[in-house]
Structure formats: C-alpha cells, structure tokens
Design goal:
The structure is a single chain. By secondary structure, the chain is an alpha+beta fold. It has one domain. The protein contains five helices and five strands; from the N terminus they run H-E-H-E-H-E-E-E-H-H. It has helices at about 5-10, 20-35, 55-70, 125-130, 135-145; strands at about 15-20, 40-45, 80-85, 90-95, 115-120. The protein has a five-stranded antiparallel beta sheet. Strand 3 and strand 4 (about 90-95) form a beta hairpin. The longest helix has 18 residues, at about 55-70. The N and C termini lie far apart (about 35 Å). The relative contact order is 0.21.
C-alpha cells in the first residue's frame, strides 16, 4: 500500500517553512555544500524519477527553480518552500506559485507541491494521494447533470 511507503510517510511528516528569500539562499547553499548526497528531483505530474540526479543536474535545477520562484511569486517573502530539517535537509517541498491553494495553515487536503527534492525514492503522489471521494462525487454530479 502506497500510504505506508517511506516516501509518503516523509511527505506527510513535519516541515519548516522557508519564509524569507535569504533563508532560501541558505537552503540552496546547504544543498550545494552537501553535493555528495543523492537527490531525487521529482516534478509532480511527471513519472517519478528512478535514479538520483547528478550534482550538475541538482545545481541547474536549483538555479532554474530559484529564478522561477522569484519571478512568479512576486512577494517580498518566500513562504512556498518547506524543508524537513534546515541544517541537514532530506526532503524539500516546493510549491508552484501559480497553484498555491491552501499551502500554509491547516487543510485536510492541501494541494500537492509542484516539485520535491528527496533523498528517498519517490512514488507517484497523484496515485498515492488521490482526490477525496466527495470531490469525485461533486465532479460526477456536475458531469451527470450535463450528460
């Protein structure tokens, strides 16, 4: 069962928000300093990677995602990146600035992040954490009304 998969357990674990842009710079620097770690770079909606990225692939991703976040999240704060441990990260959630929903605060069904960096091999989160039954029923009722 995917709910018990170590990746899903880590995904549902505790995280700290990266609230300020300088904190994000520090997180990226920490990842670059720990280049010996084997990171999976997972874009939600794509097939989960089966192998880890190279140090160069990680660096390229960090440069590109940083540019995207700063250009599309036009706030003076970050607040859309979450890490399990700031000083020794092993799991990082990066939310898409164009699909935030209820990222901060509490929600039984928060949106999935756009990207995940993980030391744990990922599983397809869209399969492991499908939409709730009431959302499916709403959709079926809506479609049935127009059929």
């Amino acid at each position: 069962m995917t709910e018990l998969h170590p990746f899903v357990q880590k995904f549902r674990g505790g995280f700290t928000g990266i609230l300020r842009w300088p904190q994000l710079d520090e997180l990226w620097a920490t990842l670059r300093q720990q280049a010996d770690k084997q990171w999976y770079i997972y874009a939600i909606g794509e097939t989960p990677p089966e192998s880890t990225s190279s140090a160069q692939q990680l660096d390229t991703f960090l440069q590109e995602i940083d540019t995207l976040l700063r250009s599309e999240h036009s706030e003076d704060y970050c607040g859309i990146v979450y890490v399990d441990k700031r000083d020794d990260p092993g799991f990082i959630k990066i939310y898409d600035p164009n699909n935030l929903g209820v990222v901060c605060g509490f929600s039984d069904n928060p949106p999935l992040p756009g990207w995940i960096l993980s030391l744990e091999a990922p599983v397809d989160l869209q399969v492991a954490l499908p939409p709730t039954g009431n959302r499916r029923r709403w959709w079926q009722k809506l479609i049935g009304a127009h059929a």
